[in-house]
Specification:
By secondary structure, the protein is an all-alpha fold. The protein is built from ten helices and two strands, in the order H-H-H-H-H-H-H-E-H-E-H-H.
Length: 232
């Protein structure tokens, strides 16, 4: 297993082919629950676990699943893991489970998960499938958490509000009040704020990519200019 291959998979999942930034998949739950950091982290963790578990399982059974029924089998695998995680969250994070509501079962319909199972996990070994699911899941979770944090800061002036919903009653200290007596910015926590925030994040990523490409081109041109020409 090549370290370069693992690095390429990580770059694809976290940045170059990020599920939310580039593929624009799973936007319905992303925009709906990212009104604060904890909600984004909760749904992001659930999605990451489903991606990792389903990728590994699909990779393990890929040689025994006939091509004609592979998609229904993959959906059943994903649905099984989503059901298990839904029940676990209901048991151990009931209040957060109630807030996320229907968006946990809807992970089954997230195109990113079935796409990774079909396009990657069904064609690679369990090691690569695990790493791909982990990186794709982390990339999606990072967008959820960052967008949730931005909306929470602008909308409420806090960070990690209601942390006890995920980490227990002893986690109230994690809540940070950034602006005392903040009146709030309603647009940030409403659905339009999610669209605007995600659009700005995508624009920032594209700007960084273009800047990086220009640096690479400039470096290549500079190297060609300084390369001595061999005498004929």
């Amino acid at each position: 297993m090549s370290n370069t291959r693992y690095r390429d998979i990580a770059e694809q999942g976290l940045w170059q082919n990020n599920v939310a930034f580039v593929q624009l998949l799973g936007l319905c739950p992303l925009l709906a629950v990212s009104n604060n950091t904890i909600n984004g982290l909760g749904l992001g963790m659930a999605t990451l676990l489903v991606l990792v578990c389903s990728n590994v399982t699909v990779s393990l059974i890929r040689h025994w699943v006939r091509p004609e029924v592979r998609v229904p089998v993959f959906v059943m695998v994903i649905a099984s893991f989503v059901t298990a995680i839904d029940l676990l969250m209901n048991a151990f994070m009931h209040d957060l489970h109630m807030i996320l509501g229907i968006f946990i079962p809807l992970i089954v319909t997230n195109c990113a998960i079935i796409a990774r199972a079909e396009a990657f996990a069904s064609k690679h070994s369990p090691g690569y499938a695990f790493w791909d699911g982990l990186m794709m899941g982390l990339g999606f979770m990072a967008v959820l958490v960052v967008l949730g944090a931005l909306r929470e800061i602008l909308g409420q002036g806090t960070l990690f509000d209601q942390a006890h919903l995920m980490f227990g009653s002893g986690a109230e200290w994690l809540t940070i009040t950034l602006i005392e007596e903040y009146q709030g910015f309603l647009l940030a926590i409403l659905p339009p704020g999610a669209f605007i925030g995600l659009g700005l994040m995508i624009a920032t990523k594209n700007w960084l990519d273009q800047r990086g490409d220009k640096k690479i081109i400039h470096g290549a041109n500079h190297q060609q200019t300084n390369t001595p020409v061999a005498p004929s």
